[in-house]
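Weekly structure sync, notes
Attendees: PL, DS, HV (note-taker this week)

Item 1: Probable arginine--tRNA ligase, mitochondrial
DS walked through the input record. Source organism listed as Leptotrombidium deliense. Sequence as pasted into the shared doc:
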Amino acid sequence: MQFGILSVGYDCFGIEGEFIQNPLLHLYHVYVRANEEFQKNENFIKSAKERARILENRSHEKVLLQWQRFREYSVNQYKEVYERLGVKFDYIHGESMYNQAALEIIKKLEELGLTEATSEGAILTKRKVNGEQTIPIVMLSSEGTSLYIARDVAAAIHRKQQFNFDRMFYVVDQEQTAHFVNLKYILRQMGYDWEKDLDHIKFGKVLGFSTRKGNVVFLDDIINEAKDRVLEYMKQTNTTKGSEENYKENAEILGVSSVIVNDLLRKRGTNYQFKWERAISLSGDSGIALQYSHARLHNLEKNSGINDCLSCNINFKAIDDPKAFQLLLCLSQFDECLLMTCSSLEPKEIPINAIKPDLLLQRSHINQAYLALKVNDEPASTAETRLVMFVAARSVLNEGMKLIGLKPLEKF
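Item 1 (cont.): predicted structure, written out as tokens:
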């Protein structure tokens, strides 16, 4: 139905030049206006429902071409945005590809005696709760178009057949929990015991999000705003090393780092209030602070004058210090944190170790050890041993940063 609303809305409110310039933003504005019409205009409602039916039946070439065009432009723009986050997609095959398969799923449910028709002509199945109460799950609308749940059932079956996955993750807002409970229930009723291998990776909402351009926020807006704020800070403080042409590149990396780490500080199902001041802080729990620690360790390693510290004989007296002990203990927990992440499906566990086992522990211990245990101007055996420890710290920090999607900076 959503595309039916958008399609008719674009006929009424779409501006081709604005669509070409920024497809996602313009389609969003069109969809908002179209939804307003859908709430009050009977003719618009009728047209949108008919447009959705036509698309599902693929009975009108012009409508189909419009959908394909909207999808192509949108996917391309999504790829550009996600590429800034270091995310690439190997395979894109959305639920809209399963319109015909969804109708076949509904037919199979009918054959299994798992559906019933309403007086309006819709087809639904029911999920039992506590053995008695039932919750209706509408599979086919009264207009004859399949609903999202039916297409998702078809998609799950196809993906199992094509990839024979061990587990499949749906990374979707936690407000869709009921949808995935229904999905797994229907698959189970159809005899697919692998439904237990489907996991809904729920995430919460970011509250209070706005940029300088307004309250409607897109991911691209967030990254651009973070980059601009970091660039402004860099120029004011002049803390970043490198030539002027490196400023924008570093600002992009630091901006992305600040957005990612700020989101991963909390459990993924938690709603939280976003604050720019915290996200781009050079101190405390931030991606920028994490980058600074990494760059400082790299600089120490590069300028130590020690060519091959890893082959040195360890002088344990050089690291006989509580700060060194805490840092080494923290580094030893890295693999354990990765295992915790795999079992809990909480990415928070990685930055917990990369930044601190309680968020900032590793970074905090690195900073404390860095200040207390000097490398430069120390006797060779002392300097080499301490450098080995700091090289190990940077290696673990580097790996942890890359695992959460950051590009570690060597200069800051």
